[in-house]
Amino acid sequence: MYLPPAMMNLSRQRQRLWHAARLAALASAGLAQQPAAPVAAPPTPAAITLDDALARARANEPTFAAAAAAAHNAALDRSIARAALLPSANYYNQYLYTESAHCPLSNTICAANAGVNPQSTGTAISPVPRFIANNTVHEYTSQAQVNETIGAQQFNAVRRASASLAIATAELEVAQRGLVASVAGLFYASFTAGRRVTVAERAANEAASLTKLTQQRETAREVAHADVIKAQLQQQQRDRDLSDAKLEAEKARLDLAVLLFPDPRTAYTLAVPEAPSAVPARADVEAALARHNPELESALASFHLANLNVFAAKSAYLPDLALNYTYGIDAPQFALNGLDGTRNLGYAASATLNIPVWDWFTTRDKVRQSDINRDVAKVTLSNTQRKLIATLDETYAEAVAAHDQLDSLNLSVTTAAESLRLTRLSYSSGESDILEVVDAENSLTSSELAREDGIVRYQTALANLQLLTGTL
CB 471: neighbour CB atoms within 10 A? Predict the structure, then answer.
């Protein structure tokens, strides 16, 4: 629509005034020249080594926490058993009130106790208590007591508590090594899953490059459209493999993060040495295994505890001695001295020898039960020793075999990569078909995946060997 120049100038002036008023309003509200808030950079993911992962897992894993609590409780049980060998002391305070006896005044003794004339009639309240088991109507007891029981069972209880502590300590070490095995497995599984993503990305890029090459050659009328279709099928499969690899890597990352962080969604990276360490000498492994192995120590401690249980059952045939010493007051007045000047403060001592005579063969049956349990502990110890020898041979052979295959796996990857390069060149020059290129790509991908599996196999075998000898 056509507007005269005067109308157009008036419209522009109104627009400038409207923009000026809007800017003034924004400035008065403090929003006109407000700079944009800087975007905080995401925190750098923490680099986690295997030692860091183990330290974090020890603080977060409930099974290990339960084993640590059991070991701590066993130490307290031993302290309690030792304290039972020492005298116990307590301060005893009691007030007893007993109803007074009512007796006829015709009874001379009653009248004398009540302090009235024997010639009177009726009844009187006697200071003698109604219950004959009590000493007086008002009785105050304030005594310090020391008690001690001496017997074979008390001394054997300390030895049994010490054996139980040894078992709990060994079980704690077993739990710790089980935790180490779990963490090491998840650690290397997550690391390998990340490396598999890298392999899948390279394979997907290689497939995309092959698709582009076939399309270019089809445009130049050098190959048939079937080559493009074959390359596209290969690319689609590699894209699916990449998606699966990313999913598996995320699952492995979350499984490990559950043990490491309060929030499993915390970002982190894994720090793994590039060059794997060598397999230790067999003599060193055997020496470390003989020096410390928690499974064997637990079996030995269990057998020792079974022997102590047999002695504990037999000790029921033996007598025990109970000693008591009491010092304080037990009088009608809560005072050091009575109304007649008698000193209420005094002491008493007792020694009791308990001799078992007859219990209807209960002790004999308990001895038989403990013998049966000792036989089971002996069989368990023998089985543990045999399994330990077999596990050592298997684990060491696995570590040696996995280590020896690392160089072969690396060579296979190098050879497959060179084969793919030469096949691509041959296909570009028209000397080979698309199937040879696809086969070369598959061979390289398989070799790379096999190398990653070989690395994690060796790292896991080495961790199991170190775990068996207690060096990890």
Answer: 12
